Amino acid sequence: MIELVSAQRCVRCDICVKVCPTNVFDLGPDGVPVIARQDDCQTCFMCEAYCPTDALFVAPLSGPAPEGSDYRDEAVMVDQGRFGEYRRWIGWGKGRTAGSRLDTNHIFTARLRP
């Protein structure tokens, strides 16, 4: 289930909003997606797989992580290399330069073209 959106890593591309099949995210006033309907998350990992900057963490749980869980602590997940982990497992974006025209995420790069 989606647990974290890192405002520091996010480039405000709103790809996660577009690829989520259950409309879990809303855009915050600063353009950073917020988890608005976590209970609707199907743990499909699409948002994490498509994120060009590894700004999302989806926990391998079918429900929300309990209060105090490391899955809800951004610093711990960064230290453990968990942001973008699913994308790496499936082999998406090898050698990419996140947020650049060299990124192999076809949804993101299509948005960069004039």
Automatic annotation (TrEMBL):
InterPro entries in the record: 4Fe4S_Fe-S-bd, 4Fe4S_Fe_S_CS, Fe-S_Ferredoxin
Any one Pfam family match given in the protein's UniProt record, by short name: Fer4_7
Keywords, ordered alphabetically: 4Fe-4S, Iron, Iron-sulfur, Metal-binding
Keyword Metal-binding: yes
Domain of life of the native organism: Bacteria
Domain 4Fe-4S ferredoxin-type: start-end pairs: 1-30, 31-61
Descriptive protein name: Ferredoxin family protein
UniProt organism field: Dactylosporangium fulvum
